[in-house]
Design goal:
Elements: E1 6-10, E2 16-17, H1 24-30, E3 36-40, E4 71-72, H2 77-83, E5 87-88, E6 92-97, H3 103-117, E7 121-125, H4 130-140, E8 147-150, H5 155-165, E9 169-173, H6 190-207, E10 210-216, H7 228-232, E11 235-240, E12 247-255, E13 263-269, E14 272-275, H8 279-284, E15 294-301, E16 304-316, E17 324-327, H9 331-345, E18 352-358, H10 370-382, E19 390-392, E20 395-396, E21 402-403, H11 408-417, E22 422-426, E23 438-441, H12 444-452
Parallel strand pairs: 6-10, 6-11, 7-8, 7-9, 9-10, 17-18, 19-22, 22-23
Antiparallel strand pairs: 1-2, 1-3, 4-5, 11-12, 12-13, 13-14, 15-16, 16-18, 20-21
Helix pairs in contact: 9-10, 10-12
The structure holds thymidine-5'-diphosphate and magnesium ion.
């Protein structure tokens, strides 16, 4: 018999039910049977629920002033840019990412930098012992004052010490390993993550305490624990990258205090994360000269153009259905573009294996890279290299037309700075004064003619 005071919750998506069983939402979405886990409701507080008020009144928009000093640059440019120019007083920032990608390293480095401008900073490690964190700090060359380390899981204990420590910034590593003893469910369960998040939100807003939370990501790429955490916090950042590649990208997916278009690029080195102010140079460093199948495209990440090398390898399929393998780009999009190349430009690649890769572990999802994919595949098939100093831009439609892309000037300027001599762009983008000499193309066949003869 289910107890009256219990609810049953899905640990994947947060679905709640008064009865035990499996989650209907997950079954619908993934076909998997996820068991619902019992949560005993905390005893209802007697009398009125405690209400947190800020003691403010409604104000006309014109009378609201953003105080100077509400935003503090941390001093790590790549991180500051993603946050919108620094960390905001009283803001709650969630940093998600795969295990081992470098979240603790990033936040320890951020804590050290913050401890210089706004000491003291409290780093609560609920995952590793103080000695383990110290080991990492030594590796990063972090010492000194203003940064307090604490290996503690109990959020009540942490809260009780805040008055005596008076930190200006708080880091919780991670939200899945801290807990509130009043709740019966285990750390990392939906109830704990949600309540801990809400408690930290109250602390952050009440004390004007800038708070960073580390969150783990599930196999499917969503933040483990309830989605509600993402709604609750002010800013959600994802720290991404391939484990076997050194580069890491910090991306804002939600930001109440800035744009979500910015990215920060880091390189994981022997002594921690190093900022990469010129990521294009990083991605193009090992580019082969005059190799068929290699094309440079410019992806726009926020306000920053990022030059990436697209590689394609087209070779006769040895037997059966030809393979298409895509790394760093959208698989379906690449299949579509290969079909356009065959049908509209007459290149018989239907019986060929095609492999597409973004060099250096980069990722490109923009349609502006379409023409690059098409040209790279054609170049590999025809065994003719694309000139090394030409940038390729354009979205490709199903009739083989090359469509306009946004931000052409910024993309071309970035290429000009790196020594590119010309660019192939959509004809509708070719007008006006541009930073590079361009050739406008209207169709895929035009582009093939211009680049590969
Ligand atoms: P970590 O910050 O512990 O990852 P997370 O908190 O996201 O789980 O980083 C783990 C990896 O980073 C680990 O495999 C070792 C590597 N690393 C370096 O390469 N250089 C360094 O200076 C540090 C501290 C870690
Ligand atoms: Mg960690």
């Amino acid at each position: 018999m289910p107890r009256a005071s219990s609810i049953y919750r899905c640990q994947q998506c947060g679905f709640a039910s008064p009865k035990p069983g499996t989650c209907p939402d997950c079954k619908r979405a993934t076909g998997e049977l996820t068991p619902l886990v019992e949560e005993r409701a905390a005893p209802a507080p007697s009398g009125r629920r405690a209400v947190v008020t800020t003691g403010t009144r409604p104000l006309p928009l014109g009378e609201i002033v953003m105080e100077q000093g509400d935003r503090t640059p941390i001093g790590i440019d790549e991180l500051d840019r993603v946050l919108g120019g620094g960390v905001v007083r009283g803001s709650l920032v969630l940093i998600g990412g795969d295990p081992g990608i470098g979240k603790s390293t990033l936040l320890l480095q951020a804590a050290r930098a913050l401890a210089r401008v706004t000491p003291p900073v409290l780093y609560v490690s609920a995952e590793e012992s103080a000695a383990q964190v110290k080991l990492r700090a030594d590796r990063l060359g972090i010492g000194g004052d203003g940064l307090l380390l604490w290996a503690e899981n109990d959020l009540d204990t942490v809260q009780a010490e805040l008055d005596s420590i008076k930190p200006r910034a708080l880091i919780i590593d991670s939200i899945q390993t801290v807990f509130l003893p009043a709740l019966e469910s285990a750390p990392g369960s939906v109830a704990q993550v949600r309540e801990c998040g809400a408690r930290l939100m109250t602390l952050a807003k009440g004390r004007g305490l800038a708070t960073f939370l580390v969150g783990h990501v599930t196999k499917e790429g969503a933040l483990a624990g309830p989605r509600v955490l993402e709604h609750l916090v002010d800013t959600v950042l994802y720290f991404e990258g391939e484990h076997h590649h050194a580069y890491r990208v910090l991306r804002a997916v939600k930001n109440r205090f800035g744009s979500t278009n910015e990215i920060g690029v880091f390189e994981m080195a022997a002594r921690g994360l190093v900022e990469v102010p010129n990521p294009s140079g990083f991605f193009l460093a090992e580019r082969p000269a005059d190799a068929p199948g290699s094309v440079i495209v410019a992806a726009l990440e926020g306000t920053r153009p990022l030059l990436l090398e697209l590689q394609a390898l087209v070779s006769r399929a040895s037997f059966g259905t030809p393979r298409r393998t895509v790394l760093g780009a959208d698989y379906n999009r690449v299949c579509l573009l290969l079909a356009v190349l065959e049908k509209r430009a007459g290149l018989p690649i239907g019986n060929q294996d095609v492999y597409v890769n973004v060099a250096g572990g980069g990722r490109v999802v923009e349609p502006a890279a379409d023409l690059g994919v098409v040209i790279a595949a054609a170049s590999s098939y025809l065994e003719r290299p694309v000139p090394a100093d030409v940038l390729v831009l354009g979205e490709v439609g199903l009739t083989g037309e090359v469509r306009a892309v946004s931000g052409v000037e910024a993309r071309l300027r970035a290429a000009a700075q790196l020594g590119f001599k010309s660019a192939i762009v959509p004809r509708s983008n070719a007008g006006g004064a541009l930073p590079l000499p361009v050739k406008g193309v209207a169709t895929v066949s035009d582009a093939l003619g211009a680049l590969l003869g």
